[in-house]
Design goal:
The protein is built from one helix and 28 strands. By secondary structure, the protein is mainly beta.
Length: 341
Amino acid sequence: MKRFLHLSEVVFLMLLALNVFTSRAQEIAVQKESSFNEVSKIVVNGDFCALKINKSEGGVVEFKGVIKSGENLDAYKLNTNVAEGVLTIDVEKPAQWKSHWGEIVLAVPNQLEIELNTISGKVDVANISEAKLSIQSKSGHVSIQEIEGNVLAVTPAGDIIVDNFKGSLKAKSKTGKVILRNVEGEQNVSTNKGNITVLNLNGNITIDGGGGLQEIENVKGNISTKATSGNIKISLSEGHVACRIFTGDLKIFQTNGTYSLQSSSGNITGTRVKFTGSSSFTSTEGNIKVQMNTKSNLAFVLKSENSYLRAMGKSKKKSLKVGKGDIVITGISTTGSQAYY
């Protein structure tokens, strides 16, 4: 009995055949290796090429580059130039092309200023100290590992993944996700639609989020974050938390610090929350519900237009003042209820 292929199987086989044909048809258009001394800055305009940067053993910059294409081989170039300590690497391609592939690999010493520009190639940087690094990509993913220094990474459509980083980071995407793991220093992260994950941070962080999920865990430092429609989860952290959400929900778990939390229609939920100082909670339509680890030295000043307010075993509508502690918890809501217990 004959078996007809499913449409998805047909598409897969066609793509596989196309990739095989493309890889077979491509030839080396240009291949280049060079070494450079006394370089203080590197500028790479990589276009479609993947960029890989790693540490060199000495003070020399080692360069390797290759480009493959199925046509117009003579039109591709890897141009290198050194002027006043600045090494510039430029990729040239023909005005018309069907398929091509390229890779630029650099081994660099520490204490360099590095500027990487690419349109679609992935950027992978690792094992560099005391660096000033700028990465600008149109759609390629960015990977940063074992880096110490100042980093700017911008890729509107790509992901940004940072592991074992120490220093100042500014990471910006529009649709890609941003992941920070084992990071130390001042961090600034933004993405419109992608998810944001922060795990193990010693330092302060500012997050400008949109519709993606934010998951922040084990931060020793101040957290300042906002989201439009995405949810935010913060856990196992110490420091001041300033958060503003609109339609998404905010959940905090086993946190220790002070809080300035604002919500429009999303709910604010806290579990095992410890207060080290006065804090505020503000909501329009969303409810506020906080289960506290702190039980003493608290005073509550709560207001709502038309909802019930609960704190320290007391319950009242519209306005509730209870407690005489030095730590003052201020809660303001419009239609949302408030409960602190």
